[in-house]
Write a structure and sequence with these properties.
six-stranded mixed β-sheet; two-stranded antiparallel sheet; 7 helices; 8 strands
């Protein structure tokens, strides 16, 4: 069943827009879910943190830089679980880390992400975490656009869970 309270909050934050939009993977869409509008809205963050907290169990949390950092931070506060940040590529300065924060070999990690379209961003984060020694088999997103992310992640032994789907979000919109 769709999380109606979260859907209402996302809509009230004007996070769902209609028109013609280019997406990060290069495709286009007639709707756009603006993560920066829902990630800067306290009510949306509260609902997202609560919903993520119900699903993560005792695992360490990981957020994909930059978009999922606010989400993983509020979820960490909600659960009391520490988190790490997975970068798309290693920094070219300072520590040159791809994973920021403390991560122990063999530690179970759940990746939190804002929006899943193709799943490439989440897969890159999972691969970086696995290379660093983490055990990762789940990604939880706020919105799954239903455009192949679930299949891509499943091909790599990763389950995709969504708080809401685009279909839920767009229904009656």
């Amino acid at each position: 069943m769709a999380n109606q309270e979260l859907i209402r909050a996302l809509r009230e934050a004007d996070a769902v827009r209609f028109g013609e939009f280019e997406l990060s993977h290069g495709g286009t869409s007639d709707y756009y879910v603006d993560k920066y509008l829902f990630e800067t809205d306290p009510e949306c963050l509260r609902l997202i943190a609560s919903a993520f907290a119900e699903r993560v169990g005792d695992a360490k949390l990981a957020g994909v830089a930059l978009g999922a950092v606010p989400l993983v931070a509020v979820t960490s506060v909600e659960t009391g679980s520490p988190y790490v940040i997975a970068r798309k590529k290693a920094k070219e300065y300072g520590t040159a880390n791809r994973i920021e924060g403390r991560l122990d070999e063999g530690e179970e990690v759940v990746v939190l992400e804002d929006i899943a379209t193709t799943g490439k961003s989440a897969l890159d984060a999972v691969e970086a975490l696995r290379e660093a020694g983490a055990v990762v088999d789940r990604v939880i997103v706020v919105v799954d656009r239903g455009e192949g992310a679930s299949d891509l992640l499943a091909d790599h032994g990763i389950e995709l869970e969504a708080l809401v789907t685009a279909e839920d979000l767009l229904d009656d919109a």
